[in-house]
Amino acid sequence: MPDRIATLTVTLIATPIAMRRAQGSGAISRAVKRVILQLRTADGIEGLGEASAWEPFGGTAEGTAAALDLYLRPVLIGADPSNIHAAVAAMDRALAGHPEAKAAAEMALWDVLGKRLALPVSALLGGAVRDRIPLSFSIADPDFAADLDRARAMVATGHRIFKMKTGFLSPAEDSQRFRRLREAAPQAEIRVDYNQGLSVIEAPAVLRAIAEQKPGFIEQPIPRGHERVMAELSAMLDVPMLADESIFDAADVLACAHQRWADAVSLKLMKTGGILKARAMAAIAAAAGLPGYGGTLWEGGIALAAAAHLIAATESISLGCEFYMPRYAMVSDVVAADMAIEQGAIVVPTGPGLGMALDLETFKRQAEAAR
Ligand code: MG
Prior knowledge:
Shape: globular
Strand content: 15-25%
Largest sheet: 7 strands, parallel
Bound molecules: magnesium ion
Structural class: alpha/beta
């Protein structure tokens, strides 16, 4: 008899953040809302899931919580964690869209299965091809001097990748920031991410100028929907292009591969709707020679551990990750211990399941803060 899911608890939390983050036109400065999912089997094994909201495309933490609580609950109760394909298909039949909610549910099922079998999720995925993932830190504080200080301190601990958020200031200011970051971290790879911030009219000149400074890659310079132009920009520049907001599902990756919108793809569990779909997308990308990158929205340790297991077990997701939020951007996460960071790399957890446990005190406090 399979040990089926018997109970499901969905909790909205509000996590105070430790540094301001520029995002599009506004800046997040106080707290982020997330959803924590607890699945429990009849035998008492608990699996953890987490979702953060894809706000630029209409996602909200409250909507994600409702999707789990009202629409996915009926298919998750009674689900067999040893058949995750079936659970994912059942979720897709029950509800269109809502990839954040489905990602949270799927990772909780992986967590249950791993705990039941006493194996890390990376082993369930066929085994780890890497045990560390190079960590990129995003330079996104409206107070750039504060970020430069952070960058210097991080370089001293072995950190070697930074991603500068560009496009929310003038191109001249971005070039100046790039130069100053290069001076502060001469050995580091510096990438830039426009978060769709350029118009198709201004993009060619702005990108030609920033490309002269040799960023490691240029991420999503123009909005989703303008992929034909992105392909032209990519062909024009000799710096790799990374597609992020243009990539949500396998059909997007297939089109990107065919039409060469970009040279690499950002895979975020909150976009893909879970590990299985992300792996399929990584395989399509790899067939076209496009490596993957471990992107995030505002996830904490549970969702980031799920993504770390995916990357550990998927060779072509080789461009590192940006899983720095719990350590650097949140005042405190709700997990008992963050994933370790050694010499600028995330250490993939090796405990059963996702390898994460809730810190119940902090979890309670952040749940109260969300009410
Ligand atoms: Mg991005």
